[in-house]
Amino acid sequence: MDDVDDVDDRHMQIGEVAARTELSLRTIRHYEETGLVIPSARSQGGFRLYTETDVARLMVIRRMKPLGFTLEQMRDLLDATDRLDGDARLDPAERAALLERVRTYQQAAAEQVEKLRTQLSRAEDFATTLTARLNRTAPPAGTQPDDDTP
């Protein structure tokens, strides 16, 4: 394989991006195939090269995934935030519409977080119940269970 030549420090190869985002190489490539994150550049040797902006985009996707957002919803939110961040010449009505799209995702995320908190609380209660059950019925530490041998 060719080494990356003439690339400044602002670009990272996919392995570094994977380590920083805690996403697998396969997942990052999948997000590229679906158009969610496109590498900012390619090295002379053909390696994907990413910037801090690309990493931030992957982190948004990573945070949306466990909340149940679809790839299409991720794409829609990223489009809205890209347009808000990239074009200072948006007319007020368009800016308001984009902000409302982002607000809708924020509200959906907050609702999902609350559902996950409830699920986590129930799971913790269950684990505590099992621990208490084991503590009630387990033989004291250092003793052996009764044995039927004479």
From TrEMBL:
Top-level taxon: Bacteria
Stored PROSITE patterns: HTH_MERR_1 (PS00552), HTH_MERR_2 (PS50937)
GO molecular function, one term: DNA binding
Keywords: DNA-binding
UniProt xrefs under Pfam families: MerR_1 (PF13411)
Keyword Transferase annotated: no
Ranges for domain HTH merR-type: 11-80
SMART domains from the UniProt entry: HTH_MERR (SM00422)
GO biological process terms, semicolon-separated: regulation of DNA-templated transcription
Region (Disordered): 131-150
SUPFAM superfamilies noted in UniProt: Putative DNA-binding domain (SSF46955)
InterPro entries per the UniProt record, alphabetical: DNA-bd_dom_put_sf, MerR-type_HTH_dom, MerR_fam
PANTHER family from the UniProt entry: HTH MERR-TYPE DOMAIN-CONTAINING PROTEIN (PTHR30204:SF93), REDOX-CYCLING DRUG-SENSING TRANSCRIPTIONAL ACTIVATOR SOXR (PTHR30204)
Protein name per its UniProtKB record: MerR-family transcriptional regulator
Organism in which the protein naturally occurs: Streptomyces coelicolor (strain ATCC BAA-471 / A3(2) / M145)
